[in-house]
């Protein structure tokens, strides 16, 4: 790993929210972005969901019971939390604030409920992207072909998909995932453009002053 990744950057960090109904490509695109962009780190949520085979506590999620989740809510330790598929998920505050101070970008795998909660405190740092499937039939096909869910779970995810898609207009960027490679390229382009915004580049005033000299 490049040791410079741990040094503060001359820009403000981003909170990148990537949302979609299950099967629209969110997990794959998140993985590809993380693998190719060393300035992006994944937000690790706390959850009351049971740990699945192969998942590692503290890497995939912080697995907690309901009483601990209640305590974290009462203590104000989440920047956002929500009910998803019968369990609760929440984003702890300290890693988010530390990343922003260091000019690092955090990728959030959350739904519209979580994105809405981030807006009041982190609106200026927030970049929201919603992924749409090309058709609902294609979405159902992708859920079947990944082979991880039962027919009952797939049916439930399809019922929920329409409700999730109904919130598309609350996002800054909306992409239709016809082709995975093209969609990943679009997400990378959005991130690059957001990093280049004048308001995010904290060292520009001093740089320009040195560039043109004191006479201006």
Task: Provide a descriptive summary of the structure in words.
The chain is of the alpha/beta class. Helix content is 42%, strand content 19%. The protein contains eight helices and nine strands. It has helices at residues 26-36, 66-74, 93-101, 112-122, 136-145, 151-165, 180-195, 204-212, and strands spanning 15-19, 40-42, 46-47, 62-63, 78-84, 87-92, 105-108, 126-132, 173-176. A five-stranded parallel β-sheet has the order 2-7-1-8-9, sandwiched between helices. A four-stranded mixed β-sheet has the order 4-3-6-5. Helix 1 crosses helix 7 (180-195). The termini are far apart. The model is unreliable at 1-8 (pLDDT under 50).
Our measurement of the CA-to-CA distance between the termini, rounded to an integer number of angstroms, reads 41 Å
- Give me the CATH fold name of the domain at 3-43 and 103-212: Rossmann fold
Helical residue percent band: 40-55%
Principal-axes geometry comes out as globular
- Low-pLDDT residue intervals, each spanning 5 or more residues: 1-8
The total strand number stands at 9
Could you state the CATH homologous superfamily of the domain at 3-43 and 103-212?
P-loop containing nucleotide triphosphate hydrolases
Mean pLDDT: 89
Strands of the widest sheet, in order across it, are: 2-7-1-8-9
| Structural class by SSE content | alpha/beta
CATH architecture of the domain at 3-43 and 103-212: 3-Layer(aba) Sandwich
Hey, roughly how much beta strand do the residues contain? 15-25%
What is the CATH top level name of the domain at 3-43 and 103-212? Answer: Alpha Beta
Order of helices and strands: EHEEEHEEHEHEHHEHH
Report the C-alpha radius of gyration, rounded: 19 Å
Largest sheet: 5 strands, parallel
Number of helices: 8
């Amino acid at each position: 790993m490049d040791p410079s990744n741990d040094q503060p950057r001359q820009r403000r960090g981003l909170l990148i929210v990537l949302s979609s109904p299950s099967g629209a490509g969110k997990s794959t695109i998140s993985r590809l972005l993380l693998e190719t962009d060393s300035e992006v780190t994944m937000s690790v949520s706390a959850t009351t969901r049971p740990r699945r085979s192969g998942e590692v506590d503290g890497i995939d999620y912080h697995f907690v019971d309901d009483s601990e989740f209640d305590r974290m809510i009462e203590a104000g330790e989440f920047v956002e939390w929500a009910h998803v598929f019968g369990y609760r998920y929440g984003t702890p505050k300290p890693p988010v604030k530390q990343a922003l101070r260091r000019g690092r970008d955090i990728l959030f795998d959350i739904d519209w409920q979580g994105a809405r909660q981030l807006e009041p405190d982190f609106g200026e740092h927030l970049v929201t992207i919603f992924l749409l499937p090309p058709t609902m039939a294609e979405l159902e096909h992708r859920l079947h072909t990944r082979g991880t869910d039962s027919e009952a779970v797939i049916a439930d995810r399809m019922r929920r998909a329409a409700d999730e898609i109904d919130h598309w207009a609350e996002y800054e960027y909306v992409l239709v995932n016809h082709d995975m490679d093209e969609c990943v390229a679009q997400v990378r382009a959005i991130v690059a453009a957001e990093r280049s915004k004048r308001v995010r580049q904290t060292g520009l005033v001093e740089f320009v002053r040195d560039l043109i000299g004191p006479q201006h």
